[in-house]
Input
Amino acid sequence: MFREMHRFEWPIIDSASDEAVIKQLHTSISLYKKEGIYDEFERAFADYHLLDYSVVFNSGTTAIWAMFGALGLRPGDEVLVPTYTFFATISPMIQWGLTPVFCDCSEDGNFDPEEIIRKKTERTKAVIVTHMWGIPCNMPKISSLCKRFNLFLLEDCSHAHGATIGDRKVGTWGDMAAWSLQGKKVVAAGQGGILATSNRSMYEHAVFLGHFNKRCFQELSPESKFALYSITGAGMNLRPSPLAIALANQQFSQFDQWLKQKRLYAQEWIETFSDVPFLTMPKFPVEYQPTWYALVMQYDATKSKFSRSEFVELLQNEYKLGEVDIPMSTCPNHLLPLFAQPHTVRPDFYDANIGNMNDNFPMARKFYDNAIKIFIPARVSDNDDFQLYIEGFREVAKMVVL
Ligand SMILES: Cc1ncc(COP(=O)(O)O)c(C=O)c1O
Output
């Protein structure tokens, strides 16, 4: 057992990471064009996804902001959004005056495709999904419904770097996709984000929104309506630090290996605990290959002597399993003040009383209320510690089962 609260190391910073960042430090700490480490990482990332273009940002949030902007929608246009996600999937649309229409999830915590049929109106222009905790949403169904109803489709892949359905990666099913590269993510820059697409005009629009001057002169087609504004771009500077992108690039070069190992650990966890009566393991079709950003189980307190929080406290306090916890900030979003009363932030776009206070999202509520999460490590050398998690979890599960 662990003596002190245990954490797996993440991100994995080794001598190759030091070298990559120091090399960048002595090469260039500001980049102005699609050049150097930006170009190297963007190309590798787009190629990996078999997409034509990608552009770096200083966070996942700003990459998502640029995706919404690059759709060219108008204030009041509706976008179908998952209520169960991290808020930054939705929050950037408030800056564009778009109306989030919240959708419930399926049993697996992911966007329920049937909600598109139930919630779309004549004002609905787009759908955004998040592949929660790294498990792909049902993209074949979601993308076919978006085509049928002529809706743009955006993917927030911040939990799901490298996840696939068959041999098709998440991030390639819609018009554009964005990934956070924040420090806890599977590809980490510390602070950073990336947007990818095969749509040239959306790509140029996104470049215009986040970059300016040299990169706009370099990349905007002369016929683009934005070319005239190249000096200023859209007036924002959302470029990331090249040091951060050097780190992301180095992490990315190893990450397929990490994914393989994460999948083995996740499979072992699921097989070990699938017959515990008060736990439901993640379920997904065989052709889905999740990222395992985290593995999220559902806890049924009616089959246990302990409540969910008592169970997790026991694991943390007695067994020092610090990587088991209850996810809090990734939650149903529809009641958050930013979405219920967005006029406080953008009085120019929203009326004081537009609040969406409807709380009828039973699946999202249930998923959130019963979720327990465990971090899944990525290296073979983490195996001894991972086995201590399995042992500790098994002991506590035996203790509390009814
Ligand atoms: C699903 C999801 N979307 C968006 C974001 C925002 O990314 P960032 O923190 O890089 O702005 C996060 C990150 O934390 C996230 O988990």
Summary: The chain has a mean pLDDT of 97. The chain has two domains: 15-254, 255-331+361-400.
